Amino acid sequence: MLKPIKIRIYPTDEQVAFLNRQFGAVRFCYNTGLRIMSHRYKRHGQSLSAKHDIKKLLPVAKSLKWLARRSSS
């Protein structure tokens, strides 16, 4: 049985800014992928696989300079 542990962190202002940029980039990617998948389904009645179809869009996403500067880890 796994026992959950709650930990409170107190990031510095610099870390808060970094985390906000990271979460913003993740939110942008998720919402864009969701919009693409929804549009494709509504228009063509076909669903896309996030693992296979959306992954092909990564080079396009990396061409966005502000997104390419974000850490991938």
Radius of gyration: 17 Å
Reading the helices and strands in chain order gives: HHH
User: How many separate helices?
Assistant: 3
Largest sheet: none
What's the number of extended β-strand segments? 0
Please tell me what the overall shape is: extended
Query: How far is the first residue's CA from the last residue's CA?
Result: 29 Å
Strand percentage: under 5%
Unreliable segments of 5+ consecutive residues: none
Q: Approximately how much helix is present in the residues?
A: 55-70%
Would you tell me the overall average pLDDT? 82
Write a concise keyword list for the protein shown above.
mainly alpha
3D architecture notes:
The structure is a single chain. This protein is extended. It is built from three helices and no strands. It is mainly α and 73 residues long. The protein has a domain at 28-60.
Topology readout:
Blueprint: H1 13-44, H2 58-62, H3 65-68
Summarize the structure.
The protein has three helices and no strands.
